[in-house]
Amino acid sequence: MKDLSQLLSSIPPSATLAVNDKAKALKAAGRDVISLAGGDPDFDTPPTVVEAAIAALKAGDTHYPPSRGTMALRRAVADKCAREYGMEVDPARQVLVSPGAKFLIYAIMAALTNPGDEIIIFEPYWVSYVPIVKLVGGIPVTITLPAADNFRIRAELLAAHISPRTKAILVNSPNNPTGRVLSPDEAEVIRQAALEHDLYVISDEIYEKLIYEGRHINLASLPGMAKRTITVNGHSKAYAMTGWRLGWAAGPADVIGLAAKLQSQSVTSAASFTMSAGVVALEGVDEEVETMRRAYQERRDFMVDALNAIPGVECTNPQGAFYLFVRFPGLGNDSLQIANRLLEDAEIAATPGIAFGQAGEGHVRFSYATSMDDLKRAVERIRRLMP
Ligand SMILES: Cc1ncc(COP(=O)(O)O)c(C=O)c1O
After folding, report:
1. 38 CB near ligand 1 (under 6 Å)
2. Rounded to two decimals, what is the model's pTM?
3. CATH class of domain segment(s) 6-45+287-385
4. The CA-based dihedral angle spanning residues 186, 191, 194, 198, taken in that order and rounded to the nearest 10 degrees
5. What per-residue confidence (pLDDT) applies to 50?
6. Confidence at 253, pLDDT banded by 50, 70, 90
7. Which one-letter DSSP state was computed for residue 235?
8. Chain-wide mean pLDDT for the chain?
9. Pocket flag, ligand 1, residue 236 (CB < 6 Å)
10. What are the tens digits of pLDDT across the range 267-326?
C-alpha cells in the first residue's frame, strides 16, 4: 500500500487520553483504579440546560443549523462579552460556534497560519496545542516557564523567542495543567509584545469560571487588543457539558470568517439542539456554576493540604481550573516513572508532567474534577505508597 500521511503519522496520540484508556482497561480488568487523569467534570449538566435541549428536539430542531451557529447563541455570546468584558462584538461577523473549543483552536490556527509561521506556546501547555499548530503547517515555538519561578511569564523570556516569523502567541488562563491564573503584570507583558511585534493572540479562556483566587483577565478587552485577539471559550468545563461538544470564539471578523470557512467545509456546524441549551448555559445557570466552583475549591483546599502533609510530596496552591501540578521528590524526577508507580502500586491514574512539555518534567497532573470520596481515598493510597 502507498504511504499514509507523514504529518499525521508524526503526531503522537493525546497523552491524557492514553492514560485514561489505560486506567479504563485496568478498571475493566477488575482493578479499583481511581482516575485523577481526566479533564471531565464529575457533575451532571444543570437540569435547565438539559431541558432546553430536550425541548428543542421535541420542537423539531433537528435540521442543519446555520454553519456559524444559531443567531440566538451567537447573540448570547456577544451579550456575555459586553456584560463580562465590556467588549462590543458583532454576533453576525465576529462570533463562531463550533463542536468544542478544541476544534475552534484548530480552526483559528488554520485561519492565522501560513507554512513556517511560528506560534509561541508557553510550557507547560495543554497537550493539544503543539499537535494543532503542526497540523496547520505552523511551527510551535515553546517557551519553558521554570517551575522554580512558579511558571511566571517574563518579558525577557518572551522577547527572546519572538522572531520575524512569529505570527501569534497562544495563552491559556486559568491554565491546564498548572492551574495558574494570569496576573495583570503577565497580561501586560503579552499585550506589550503583541502590540510591539504586531502579533495575534489566541486566548484560551475555557476555565474562566473556575477561579478561586485572583481575577480573570479577558485579553481581548485590554487596550489595543481587540483587533488582534481571538477569545476561545466553551461550555465543557464551566457547565459540565464535555459530551455536548459546544464551544465559541470571538474575535476579528476576518479571522473568524476564515475559521468559519474551515468549519463549513469540514464539520459543518455544532449540533442544532445543543445550541438552545448553550444559550441557557450562558444566561441562566450562574447559581449552579457557583455551586460547582465552590465544590472544586473545597476539593482543591483539601488536596493541597493533604498532599503537602505527606513527606516526599509537594504541591503549590493553584488559583484556578481543576488541576494540581504535583511533584514527588520522594519518587524521583521522571514523570513517566512517577505516573507508572502511582498506577501500578497505588492504583491512581494521573497524567505525567512530560506530556505537557519539558517544563512539566518532575510533575504529575491530578484532576480534582472527581468526587471528594475518591480524592480522600487517593490521598490515603499516596500516604501508603510514599517511602
Ligand atoms: C485548556 C483547554 N482548552 C480547550 C479544551 C477543549 O475543550 P472542548 O471540550 O470544548 O473541546 C480543553 C479540554 O480539556 C482544555 O483543557
Report:
1. no
2. 0.96
3. alpha beta
4. -170
5. 98
6. very high
7. S
8. 96
9. yes
10. 999 999 999 999 999 998 999 999 999 999 999 999 999 999 999 999 999 999 999 999
Q: Is residue 171 over pLDDT 90?
A: yes
Q: Is the CB of 368 under 6 A from ligand 1?
A: no
Using a CB cutoff of 8 Å and minimum separation of 24, what contacts does 150-153 make?
150/180, 150/316, 151/122, 151/124, 151/175, 151/178, 151/180, 151/359, 152/183, 152/186, 153/122, 153/182, 153/186, 153/189, 153/190
Does ligand 1 come within 6 angstroms of the Cβ of 249?
no
CATH architecture of 47-284: 3-Layer(aba) Sandwich (3.40)
Decide if 347 contacts 33 (C-beta within 8 A): yes
Tell me: pLDDT of 64 over 80.
Answer: yes
Q: How confident is the model at residue 20 (pLDDT cuts 50, 70, 90)?
A: confident
* Ligand 1 pocket, mutate which of 173, 206, 267 (most atoms under 8 A from CB): 206
Q: Is 206 in the pocket of ligand 1 (CB under 6 A)?
A: yes
pLDDT of residue 15: 66
- Do the domains 6-45+287-385 and 47-284 sit in the same CATH topology, yes or no? no
Rounded-to-integer distance, Cα 279 and Cα 285, Å:
10
Ligand 1 centroid–CA 101 distance in Å is 6
Q: Using CA atoms, how far apart are residues 182 and 319, in angstroms rounded to an integer?
A: 10
Rounded Cα gap, residues 250 and 92, in angstroms: 11
CA distance 209 to 206: 8
The CA 237 to ligand 1 mean position distance, Å, reads 8
Banded model confidence at residue 16, pLDDT cuts 50, 70, 90: low
Closest-CA residue to 269 (of 98, 57, 75) = 98
Domain ranges in the chain are 6-45+287-385, 47-284
Q: Is 173 in the pocket of ligand 1 (CB under 6 A)?
A: no
- Stretch (H or E) spanning 248: strand 247-250
